[in-house]
Amino acid sequence: MRKVELNIINAKILVEDNLVEAGVSINQGKIVKVAKSPNLPASDVTVDSQNMLMIPGVVDVHVHLRDMNLSYKEDFSSGTQAAIMGGVTTVLDMPNTSPPTNNAERMKEKIDKSAKMIYSNVGFFGALSLDPHETSMMAKEGAIGFKLYLNDSQYNSLNDEKLLMRVLKPVRSSGVPLSVHAEFPQELTQETGSVGTRYEIERFMRSHDPQMEADAVSMCLNMAKESDAHVHICHLSTRTALDLVSRAKLAGTPVTAEVTPHHLLLSYKELNRFGSYAKMVPPLRTAKDAEGLMKGLVDGAVDVIVSDHAPHTVEEKKQRFIDAPSGIPGLETMLPLVLTEMLEKRITLRRVIQTMSENPTQLFKLKDMGKIAEGYNADIVLVDLHKEKRIEAQAFRSKAKYTPFAGRIVKGIPVMTVVNGIPVMRDGEILGKPGDGRVIRHVEVKRNDRLTVGDD
Ligand code: NCD
Ligand code: ZN
Ligand code: ZN
Ligand code: ZN
Q1: For 259-278, b where at least 16 C-beta lie within 10 A, e where not — what string?
Q2: Alpha helix positions (H), 345-398
Q3: pLDDT tens digits, one per residue of 375-409
Q4: What are phi and psi of 199, to 5 degrees?
Q5: Which of 57, 96, 141, 300 could form a disulfide with 104 if both were Cys (CB 3.0 to 4.6 A apart)?
Q6: Minimum-distance ligand to the CA of 312?
């Protein structure tokens, strides 16, 4: 083999269920060889990883990079810098922006603007449109997925199931998943008398009753079954909803589901401690729900871990609880939090790699990503499993400098992130340049790429 650009040697790589000592050769953004050092070709540059764990870069399929008119909360640069600090090499950006990504022109604007700014790879969701033609046009522009907000009519107001079947057609034929925020909105009647944060928290929790999630999930499952489109349930938060999903899966419905680290590891009790810094939708639930989600993650009922990185400014979060926007940043904390669970033996490394790299890549049909193997895109993370760190929001690259995980000690820190063969982060320092990441687009394939094998 000819000389390659980069070798990363002396790493531990998971092969089947065993950690083996090996390295990788990288050329022109691709992994060209995985082998022990003596068997790698010569290289221009060699990085000795000194026994670090080497895993595929994390693929986060639920991220709000904001930018455009909301760039004061986060922009393509700050958001993707946060990604590579956290070992995330590809993010899929949500369309609930200003303006919303709900037609091909707006998607094109995001693609063009971001291309020169990004440090990680980025794909764009389109908001599912009432007009099937718009959805088709976004698919042609390369939409990596579509998004339906059942909780917010600002982005799409679709509650008529017949209509849904019609607007789902272009999603089904493009073969990308429809990610759904599965909560129905609930209007609470005005009550008087009670004031204060505790009351506001209680009211917020009631307006996001677990049943609102269960009902919306039921509708989604029906939709997936009837339309045969791949429906992906976002940020599952309750055991009840999880049970519905896992039963539908057994029955062959083309459905998958994701969970966030906060719903896995925190409970609503954090609201009393962190106030609006722990406010997101769906809200934090009970410890029993969290436990159930972790079990689902281990046994396969849950397919993917996502950050739902949803940055807001501290000024916005500082308002009264009821007025503060929902959402927390998560790109920089997700992998260390999950690896800490792994070190405490609550989840295997195999399952971590599946749910953070392999499954998201497969479900969203990303080409040549999510694996450390010859021919794959060189998106790689080196992790120090002995290194500990206290989570501190002030150190975030994200503009959103708050987190309900503040003060937690995590173990398992990404020490090097490689995107498209370029070491873009090393020892907490950004080495990459804007534009080192690339925009990824879904390429339409004219075949029946449905999720499960069925009757046609
Ligand atoms: C998200 C946001 O801020 O965009 N907020 C949140 O609490 N999760 C929206 C969403 O993911 O539903
Ligand atoms: Zn959501
Ligand atoms: Zn979100
Ligand atoms: Zn069929």
Answers
A1: bbbbbbbbbbebbeebbbbb
A2: 349-353, 359-363
A3: 999 999 999 999 999 999 999 999 999 999 999 99
A4: -65, -40
A5: 141
A6: 1
Query: Per-residue pLDDT for 159 more than 90?
Result: no
For ligand 1, say whether the CB of 310 is within 6 Å of any of its atoms. Answer: yes
What's the pLDDT score for residue 185?
83
Asked whether 327 lines ligand 1 (CB < 6 A), one says yes
In this structure, what are the phi and psi dihedrals at residue 216, rounded to the nearest 5 degrees? Answer: -65, -40
Average pLDDT, the chain: 94
Contact 75, 35 (CB under 8 A): no
Residue 451 has a pLDDT of 47
pLDDT in tens, 271-280: 999 999 999 9
Q: How far is the CA of 228 from the centre of ligand 4 (A)?
A: 6
How many C-beta neighbours within 10 Å does residue 114 have? 25
Q: How far is the CA of 280 from the centre of ligand 1 (A)?
A: 7
How high is the pLDDT of residue 450?
A: 47
Rounded CA-CA distance 49/201 in Å is 47
* CA gap 154, 249 in Å, rounded: 30
Shortest-distance Cα residue to atom 4 of ligand 1: 310
Alpha-carbon gap, residue 414 to 332, rounded angstroms: 10
Catalytic site positions: 308
Q: How many CA atoms lie within 13 A of 337 on its CB side?
A: 25
Ligand 1 mutation pick, 96, 313, 326, 331, max ligand atoms within 8 A of CB: 326
Count of Cβ atoms closer than 10 Å to residue 210 Cβ = 19
Walk me through the domains of the chain, giving residue ranges and CATH numbers.
Answer: 57-363 (3.20.20.140)
Read off the pTM.
Answer: 0.96
For helices 104-115 and 132-141, angle between their N-to-C axes, nearest 10 degrees? 20
In a 3-state reduction of DSSP, which class is residue 171?
Answer: helix
**Atom 2, ligand 1: residue with shortest CA distance:** 310
Whole-number pLDDT of residue 455: 34
3-state secondary structure of 311: coil
Is the distance from the beta carbon of residue 246 to the nearest atom of ligand 1 less than 6 Å?
no
Ligand 1 atom showing the smallest separation from residue 149 Cα: 12
d(CA 368, CA 388): 32
Rounded-to-integer distance, Cα 253 and Cα 257, Å: 12
156 C-alpha to ligand 3 centroid (Å) = 15
Q: How far is the CA of 177 from the centre of ligand 4 (A)?
A: 16
